[in-house]
Amino acid sequence: MHLIKHARVAGMLFILALASACATPLQTLSIREKPPDIPLQQELTSTPFYPQLDYYCGPAALAAIVNYRDIEVQPDDIAPLIYVPDLKGSLQEEVIAAARRFNLLPVQLDGTLESIFREIASGNPVLVLQNLGLDIYPKWHYAIVIGYDLDEETIVLRSGTRKRLVRSFSLFERTWKRAGHWSLAIVAPGQVPVTVDAESFLKTLIEFEQTSGSYPAYQGYLSAAKKWPSSALARIGLGNTAYALGEYQKSEDAYKDALQLSPVMAEAWNNLAYALAQQGKTDESLNAITQALKISPDNKNYLDSLGELKQWGGSTN
């Protein structure tokens, strides 16, 4: 009798698990409300397709998006950058780093179906990671979402060896959820994904700037400053990259715009001082670094800047 009770409990747990697996996922339920500003259906049919070979779903998917951005590359060119033989796959960090090597900006989305659909509606295919196996026995897989149909509740993927794989929202959501809802829009530096906020986009740009040239980063900050005109940090980034490019007047203008938005940013005053000094505007430069020290009088970096800028000014007299 004791064994029968346990068998019944085990059976009930199995039934509950099965019922849970069959329940409609939350995001699929939510998207049924059909936000009025999203087209009912969209498909980016011009997205290239490279069939997955062996475990090359990462290189194949990334190559497709890079080519979509008019940069010619083959999966075999990308594989050495991201494929890890011991894992028989590619890590997300490596995919992001590889995208930057092509001077493209990889922006992680917020993990919602709505954001994916909004990006597709604006012309951005979305790279996603799925777990096609189980939580305890995962089978990781990269695919590209290229389309959707809100009425039919279907999503269209470039996936594996299938150029056009159609899946229900609920089935896709389950496999995507098991991979942490990871999704990536990969755009040119002059573009801003429509669903990203200023904070996350600027964080992405800072990381991009560290590994890419100053000009692509400048383009990114320029687009950010246009999209979020009240962002002082976007202006600071614009000023820094313009300075690195030797565009000192543009750098000066960007720092002054930042200070109009936030007059107590000591960093902006410090950087402005250097942009002015590079143009031979000695008195204005020394006034700017003095303003930085008024805000942060004990800051060693600004004290060092004062000494250096005084030397610069003396050398130009």
List keywords for this structure.
alpha+beta, Cathepsin B, Chain A, disordered N terminus, about 15% strand, 9 strands, Serine Threonine Protein Phosphatase 5, Tetratricopeptide repeat, seven-stranded antiparallel sheet, about 325 residues
Question: Could you characterize the architecture of this molecule?
Answer:
Strand 6 and strand 7 form a beta hairpin. This protein has two domains: 23-187, Cysteine proteinases (Cathepsin B, Chain A, Alpha-Beta Complex), CATH 3.90.70.10; 214-316, Serine Threonine Protein Phosphatase 5, Tetratricopeptide repeat. Helix content is 55%, strand content 14%. The protein has 317 residues and is an alpha+beta fold. The protein contains 14 helices and nine strands. The protein has helices at 2-22, 26-31, 57-68, 75-82, 92-101, 113-121, 169-177, 198-211, 214-227, 232-244, 248-261, 266-278, 282-295, 300-316; strands spanning 41-43, 83-84, 89-90, 105-108, 126-131, 140-149, 154-159, 162-168, 183-187. The strands form two sheets. Strands 1, 4, 5, 6, 7, 8 and 9 form a seven-stranded antiparallel beta sheet that branches. It has a two-stranded antiparallel ribbon with strand order 2-3.
